[in-house]
Structure formats: C-alpha cells, structure tokens
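Continuing the series of single-chain predictions for the mutant panel. This is the parent chain; the variants come on the following pages.
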Amino acid sequence: MTLLSLVKPSELCVVVKANAYGHGSVEVAKIAVASGASMLGVARVSEARALREAGLSCPILLLSEPAPGEFSACADLDVEVTVYSPDTIAALNLLGSRSRRVRCHLDIDTGMGRVGCTPSEAPRLAAEISAASGLELAGISTHFASADEVNSAPSVAQLQSFEAALHQCRANGISWKHTHAANSAAAITFEEARFSMVRCGIAVYGVHPRDGASTEMASELGLVPAARFVSEVSFVKEVPAGQAISYGGTWTAPHATRIVTVPLGYADGVRRDLAMLGGEVLIGSGKFRIVGRVTMDQLMVDVGEADVTVGDEVVIFGRLGKQELSANELAARLHTIPYELFCAIGQRVERTYVP
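Parent structure:
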C-alpha cells in the first residue's frame, strides 16, 4: 500500500465508514487488513457489527461515542470506543472488567467544533479512564478541520493545542498506546501530525484529499482511483430539431441528433441537475453532454452522429481508454467534494471487485 510506505513508522487506520465511502465496507476492509492496515475506523456500531459478522477480527475503532443503548454492543463486539464525556466513560466502565476491559480513545476537540472534550478537560478524563477498572486508555486523538486547505495556520494551531494536552497527560503519569490526529490530508502533507497512527479515508480510495486536486497531484503520490462509476447504453433514438428531452423540456435539440438513454438516475447517485451544470459522460472514444433533467432511473446523452449502440459502456467517472473523467472533476462541476459523490451512489448499483 502506498499510504503505508508514506506514513511509516506510523500505523494505518483505514476508515471504512459509510460503506467504505460507497465502495463496499466488507470488501475494502478485507483488502485493507490483508495489505497491512492495523485498524479499521467506523462511524456506527452497526458498521462494526457488519465487519465482525463478515469474520474480521482486527481492531475496530468507533470514531464517535455510541448511543447509550449501544454501549453493551460495543463491549460484545470488542470495539475500541472513542469517548469524550464523563457519563459515557462511567457507563462503559460498568460493562468492562479487569479481564476484558473496554478500550477507549479519548478525543480532544482542538478546533473542529464537532465532538470531543476540551483540551483543559483532557488530563482529568484521561486519568479517569486510566484509573477505571473496566477501561483501558488505548488512545488519545483529535481531528483537523482544515488540513485539506492550502493555509496550514489553523492546523498548526490545532496541533499545538493537541500537543499541549498530551504533554499534560504524560506529566500526570498517564500512558496509552495510540496517538492519532491525521486524516488523509494531514497524513500526506503534515508529517508532524502523524504521531503513532493515522486515520485515512479518501486517500485509501485513490483520491487526493485537497479540494480541487488534479489527477496529476494524486498520481504524484501513487494514488490510483479505486472506483469507476459505469453503466451502459440501453436505448438509442433519432430525434428531430426542436425535440424536448426529459421532464419539463429544459433542453431541446438544436438540430437533428441522436439521443441515448442510460439506466442510471438520481436514485443511483447521479444528480438531477447534472445536465444544467454541464455534466458529461464517456462513451467509446468520445465525451458527450448529458441533456435534460436526470430522472430517478435514467439519464439522456446527446451523442450527435457518433457511432453508439446499445450495450456500449458509459462512464460517469473513471477512465475509458485514453480518456478520464475524474471524481475530482465531476465534484468540482457539482460544487462539492468526491466524498459526497461516492457516498451518494445507491445500493442498487452493483459493485464489482477486480483483483
């Protein structure tokens, strides 16, 4: 794995939450562990359960506190739990025992403003976890808010706040195994933030984490996109000049042309307004415009006089021959990020895994 060699000697936690960013959590998790990942990261207890039921016995980290009704499941599933509130720490302690302690990672909010204890609270909570008979302080973590941006000042400030809290915990005689702060962006660009482990998500899937990053930037790091989003032509028709296409007739043919139908729609993760935003697809050796509103199950493409037939492959993002429509390129067109594109791909889209 390229990321493993990049972050050495830090260990790698591969984040497989949200169905591995739409790629398929169980399949990705198995490959990640076989390739050297030390831990898997999930957002929900249900995600951890699915991995355990699939036979994965490696360490799994729940990246935020579970709901109170899920505390016992965390213990039963042998999941390492992110904590930041006294009530959760106390409740988990009651579930653990000296023979089977619940492993906790104390999360410190150094500027993300989402979850986590304050830096000033961290030494006290770390001491409580360390002293609890049913708990083990397995790690201390934080999360960067702006590591994917060019301006590094906010990340530097967060790092300094985190290191000050770590120093105070150590000064109080507290020890733990994993120190982790870096997401994909920080793991790639911020060596000081790698500590003993990094948590990588989007980079694992071959996408550079910086907003608007080019394919070349990813290639320089050895990142290769893991996914292609493809379908095929299901219907081809000739239409005359003035023919309206799709709901509302928002596009009409300026001249006689050929329109192909593709069986993908917004139920599958293709934005309804993609045509209005200049969306394109790859078919054969050409790049063609999507026209009319994307419907729930289908979209239409103007292929002009190109030789396109039913069954031809259609690429929403990915490579086809010498051409490529990258996820970053499509995300920029939609004013979003590749993460959202991947997570939006519906469950009825078949995932095919190539060795």
